[in-house]
Amino acid sequence: DSVDVDIFGYTRDWEKISRAIREANDWTCECCGLKMKSPWDRRFWQVHHKNGIKTDNRQANLECLCIRCHANVDVVHRSNFSEGDKKDMLDEFNRLYPEGKS
Question: What global pTM score does this model have?
Answer without folding.
Answer: 0.92
